[in-house]
Amino acid sequence: MLVKVGSRELELGGEHLTELRDSNDIRYDFDALRARIAEDGYLLLRDFHDREEVLNARRAVLRKMEKMGKLDRDTLLEDGFMADGSRTLFFGGTNEDLPELLDVLNGPRIMGFFDQLFGEKSLTYNYKWLRAVGKGDYTGAHYDIVYMGRGTHNLYTVWSPIGDINYAMGGLAMCLGSHRFEELKRTYGTKDSDWDKVNNYTDDPLVITGKYGGKWATTEYRAGGRDDLRDVPYALLAGEYDEPVPAERGHPLSILPGKSRRTLGR
């Protein structure tokens, strides 16, 4: 099966693309979870959020998009089909007009998980990185730290799908082992997206693996009821090509230990 990752079509199960490993077998063993994320650079946790809470957040986002004229008016709101000509929408900010979304992203379920993972009180940024990816669009390969590392690098990022995502729609892909690409971390990984005017590293996933090694991995996702992916900020992520199917896809945020709290700025 061919899956579009960035600008490439890769064979799932082939030389360049495999399945992400989920960590539900050790879901409540926090020592094992710490060891797993150190080894793999990420945790994929299924059945984490309450599905209905996530779908409520999805409906709130879609209603906002509908008011903006970004959805196809001849389809059901719940299906989330983008209007012809609509491209990716970025709703970066505090998203205070979407309390249903914040109930999921800032709720006790996720913050309590990180309290246990860190062994201390966790914090999250007020700013959220919410995207609705349009037909034919994708996010190139990047380190989250380039966008989220201002103030501290002692953090984890979380990607939560707020819609069901199959391979044809395109979800999130990760380059396995990229949290250990020391040369890339010393160069691209030290940049700030605003101050240094940098964005994605490349749209071609094979540029990464050809130069640094590793292998890309992905999976199918289901809103809330199944999937949440947390990763270290030095893990290369890429968005897959989006077919003309539901628009709203995923939301990354950052979680950091309480001791890491600093003024966010240089």
UniProtKB/TrEMBL annotation:
Entry keywords, A to Z: Dioxygenase, Oxidoreductase
Pfam family, one: PhyH
MF terms in GO: 2-oxoglutarate-dependent dioxygenase activity
UniProt xrefs under SUPFAM superfamilies: Clavaminate synthase-like (SSF51197)
Source species, domain of life: Bacteria
InterPro entries, alphabetized: Phytyl_CoA_dOase-like
PANTHER family: EXPRESSED PROTEIN, PHYTANOYL-COA HYDROXYLASE
Protein name listed in UniProt: Phytanoyl-CoA dioxygenase family protein
Organism of provenance: Cohnella ginsengisoli
